[in-house]
Design brief:
There is one protein chain. The chain is an alpha/beta fold. Helices cover 38% and strands 21% of the residues. It has 14 helices and 14 strands. The strands form two sheets. It has an eight-stranded mixed β-sheet with strand order 3-4-2-1-5-6-7-8. Strands 11-10-9-12-13-14 form a six-stranded parallel β-sheet, with helices on both faces. Helix 6 (144-148) links the parallel strand 7 and strand 8 (157-159). The longest helix is centred in the C-terminal third of the chain and has 16 residues, at 333-348. It starts with a strand and ends in a 7-residue tail after the last helix.
């Protein structure tokens, strides 16, 4: 009797608590694997525990000084009983892992991100990033931009864009709390410095005919809530974390989606989520966004004047774009799933079928 075959994913966060970024991509990647392939998701959490996330067994290693020792012990134990493939999204995990990483997925280059904020350890991150690429059999990039801004200089790489698990979430048609006479703008973002929430606050202050709702959490959530309160703005709301079902409802009931960023947008998942719901998406002309956007007319130069003008022009004239078709043709679950099937088949001979 042969050994079990398993794929071990390295991530960052507890997927039950936080699943809007890397965790979403891992969920999509794991969907390419048939039921006879066991799936593990390993991350550093608040405590040692294990639980199931859909059909993926999650293992949390408590975040302390011995976490990398525990990581290696865990992987060695899994290797004794199975034929393993390690698919990592985490630079530090792969760096301290004694074994090689089979596939390493790059969302944003470690050195690129640290350089954008002039991080004092950026040269350390540069060393780590290069070392991880040397230890990886295959490097996967989620966009041409993430490849361009990385420190990877070999030929053994593949580019596969993201898709969104929201496609599988049943859409409930419920009335949301929008002001019926206003133009409804929705965005899903991590509330941090790089995503340019200031621009949306400025837009709300300038145009009272817009109603803006922002889903997401992050280190600057309370700062921006305080600013909105001090400016007495009643047409913009930071709603915090929303479950996927609620996010789908807001996407479906809004008029426009925005995805703003100053830097560090390796793909732009909310862009394709807007297209999934057949909505126009206005997004910043930075990072990977221009290669994902349906038309350059929807790109914004990160000024409130340009953002407002492009929204108003669209509302007056419209554009004959089939956003939903563009999503399914380029980023739909089936399209991306097939690319991951080919990836796992070609490089790891797991004998996966297209079913």
């Amino acid at each position: 009797m042969g050994k079990d075959k398993i794929v071990i994913y390295f991530g960052f966060n507890n997927p039950i608590i936080y699943k809007r970024g890397v965790e979403n991509v891992i969920l999509s990647q794991s969907g390419a694997l048939p039921q006879n392939i066991k799936k593990y998701y390993v991350f550093f959490g608040e405590k040692d525990e294990d639980f199931f996330w859909n059909d993926i067994k999650c293992i949390s290693i408590r975040h302390n000084l011995f976490r990398f020792v525990k990581l290696n012990k865990l992987i060695n134990k899994l290797y004794k009983n199975a034929e393993c493939v390690i698919h990592s999204h985490n630079y530090l995990m792969s760096f301290f892992l004694l074994r090689k990483t089979d596939v390493f997925t790059v969302h944003d280059g470690l050195f690129y991100l640290s350089s954008q904020t002039s991080h004092k350890f950026k040269n350390v991150f540069k060393f780590i990033e290069k070392a991880v690429y040397r230890k990886s059999k295959l490097v996967h990039f989620i966009s041409n931009f993430s490849k361009k801004e990385s420190l990877y200089d070999e030929n053994n790489f593949i580019i596969v864009n993201n898709t969104t698990p929201l496609e599988q979430i049943k859409l409930k048609f419920e009335k949301e709390f929008w002001s019926s006479k206003k133009v409804k703008i929705f965005t899903v973002r991590s509330i941090e410095e790089r995503v340019n929430i200031e621009l949306l606050i400025e837009l709300a202050q300038k145009n009272s005919n817009l109603e803006i709702k922002i889903s997401g959490k992050g280190p600057l959530l309370e700062k921006y809530r305080k600013e909105i309160k001090e400016k007495k703005l009643d047409n913009i709301e930071l709603m915090g974390f929303l479950e996927d079902e609620k996010i789908r409802q807001y996407y479906n009931s809004c008029d426009i989606v925005t995805v703003l960023a100053k830097y560090g947008e390796g793909f732009g998942l909310p862009i394709i989520e807007g297209y999934l719901h057949n909505k126009p998406v206005f997004a910043s002309n930075v990072s990977a966004i221009p290669e994902i956007i349906i038309d350059k007319k929807f790109l914004v130069n990160n000024t409130v004047k340009d953002l407002e003008n492009k929204i108003q022009n669209y509302l007056k004239r419209g554009m004959s774009c089939n956003f939903e078709k563009y999503y399914y043709d380029n980023f739909g679950n089936d399209v991306i799933r097939q690319k991951y099937i080919e990836l796992y088949n070609q490089f790891f001979k797991l004998n996966l079928s297209g079913s």
